[in-house]
Amino acid sequence: MVKLVLVLGDQLSPEIAALRRADKASDVVVMAEVASEAEYVPHHPLKIAFLFTAMRKFASELRENGWTVAYTKLDDPENAGSVPGELLRHAEKYGAEKVLATEPGEFRLIEALHDTPLDVTLLPDDRFLCSHAEFSEWAEGRKALRMEYFYREMRRKTGLLMDGDKPEGGQWNFDHDNRKPAKSDLFREEPPKPRADDVLGEVLDLVEARFGGNFGALRPFPYQTDRAGALHALDHFITHGLPDFGAYQDAMLQDDPYLYHAVIALYLNAGLLGVLEICKKAEAAYYQGRAPLNSVEGFIRQIIGWREFVRGIYFREGPDYTNHNVLNHQRKLPNVYWGAKTHMNCMAQAIGQTQDLAYAHHIQRLMITGNFALLAGVDPIEVHRWYLAVYADAYEWVEAPNVIGMSQFADGGVVASKPYVSSGAYIDRMSDYCKSCRYRVKDKTGPDACPFNLLYWYFLIRHRERFQSNPRMAQMYRTFDKMDDRHCQTVLREADAFLDRLERGETV
Ligand code: FAD
Ligand code: DLZ
Ligand code: SF4
């Protein structure tokens, strides 16, 4: 009997579990552009355009390879508007009762599939190195889950950068060679631009008409939309970016959104690239002398370490994870996140490029927009929904642990051992933003004081009880305790006044 085979927008791989299990001769692949997925947060237009174009091209590839594909475009009058709705419609049309699906990356959709009256088989998503069972086994009985130890297991499991049972170069982690600030370089290579094509053109018009009012630009469209393009972008990065990736991975530069970053998470998360193929290319570059170990190890760690680790956390913590708010932060997300003018140059840069490209690199997400939201006491669920909406690579399984956990410390320390907060001094050290800012990074108080300085101490004071006994925060509190009382009172008063202005929607 005919079965339906569901392929979601972020499952665009011919090796995806549901396709491997299906029968090409008799089964029907269902792919659908649906309002419920496109609207559950106000996604950036580039994210929707990337995904719909990649979905349409992938459907064509499947057809060329002999599959029967029932593809529904967003503007199809018969579109049922949701993934379960489309499955029901096609079940009736093809007389199917059974559905093969690969586990979605969000509890929301897993629950919706469970709730359909159809007989849905959810197969594990084995594009990841670490299954749910394996992660649970690793996590069981540990007092704290720390990425570094998990990562070592993944190195052993994959054999990547291993010299027998020892790590290549005698160390697991070369971060002490990294974290350098970068200098402007007019000759730095940008990721390759896509060629215009009819499929992309049609999707851009559709997205402009339906989602043109969402936060974010749509043209010029900057990304690749098929596997060949994604591979080209990966090879381009391995040649031009990887050698300097390690040294400058935490650096930020005015008007230079990508620096030496790979800009591949959107392709990897959508299924256009695979974890091992990426890491093996990076590893080969090291053994061929084309990239140094600190860069290659650092890059591989992000993918087989952090990426697998946060996925493990998401599925282990369960559907309630995004509601955590241990610091009881209640502020609404300030309108600067949606593009309102700000005098804080670092925020203007990080949010401006997010608006233009649906991209910001890790340190911009963590130490600029994330840091500011945490210092200002923004409700973490609002921060979560923003990140999920505005980045082309965002799906809840990867976004939520990074935002709720790593960036906002709302889970009380499941992901991070301390909150990622900093004053302006860190931003000044790692970027050239402060030079062009209306605020003065050296000023701790007064009319020109950098807001990150005011809010940093304000945060430490507010949360002293929770954090003062954390050994990784001890130095911060020792510095604080050396401040004289009058200075502290001024900081508190000025921070309060700043937050009031922020709350009233004034330009800050
Ligand atoms: P590079 O800096 O070149 O890194 C290479 C690859 O490593 C990335 O493509 C990605 O696959 C992986 N990686 C690096 N860091 C992480 C991490 N912390 N977690 C998971 N994978 C990682 N990543 C997403 O893919 N989707 C998200 O929605 C997302 N939201 C984030 C929110 C916050 C607050 C923070 C701090 C980080 C978030 N990240 C997210 C992680 C990271 O910022 C992005 O993966 C990265 O910026 C993507 O750009 P790139 O491909 O140029 O990555
Ligand atoms: C993100 C997204 C969007 C915008 N649109 C669709 C869509 O129309 N059809 C689809 O199958 N998938 C879409 N996606 C990706 C899903 O939201 C994603 O599969 C889930 O969030 C699980 O990761
Ligand atoms: Fe950001 Fe403060 Fe530097 Fe301005 S001075 S760019 S607000 S860190």
Which helices and strands occur, and which strands form pairs?
Layout: E1 3-6, H1 17-21, E2 28-32, H2 35-39, H3 45-64, E3 68-72, H4 83-94, E4 98-102, H5 107-114, E5 119-123, H6 132-139, H7 147-158, E6 162-163, E7 166-167, H8 198-211, H9 227-240, H10 242-245, H11 265-270, H12 275-287, H13 293-317, H14 345-357, H15 362-376, H16 380-390, H17 396-407, H18 424-430, H19 451-462, H20 464-467, H21 474-481, H22 485-503
Parallel strand pairs: 1-2, 1-4, 2-3, 4-5
Antiparallel strand pairs: 6-7
The chain binds flavin-adenine dinucleotide (FAD), ligand DLZ and iron/sulfur cluster.
Unique ligands = flavin-adenine dinucleotide, ligand DLZ, iron/sulfur cluster
SS-derived structural category: mainly alpha
Order of helices and strands: EHEHHEHEHEHHEEHHHHHHHHHHHHHHH
CATH topology of the largest domain: the name is: DNA Cyclobutane Dipyrimidine Photolyase, subunit A, domain 3
CATH superfamily of the largest domain: DNA Cyclobutane Dipyrimidine Photolyase, subunit A, domain 3
Q: Please report the distance between the alpha carbons of the first and last residues.
A: 63 Å
Radius of gyration: 23 Å
CATH class of the largest domain: Mainly Alpha
Q: Which architecture of the largest domain per CATH?
A: Orthogonal Bundle
Strand content is 5-15%
Helix fraction bin: 40-55%
What summary fits the major beta sheet? 5 strands, parallel
Number of helices: 22
Strand order of the largest sheet: 3-2-1-4-5
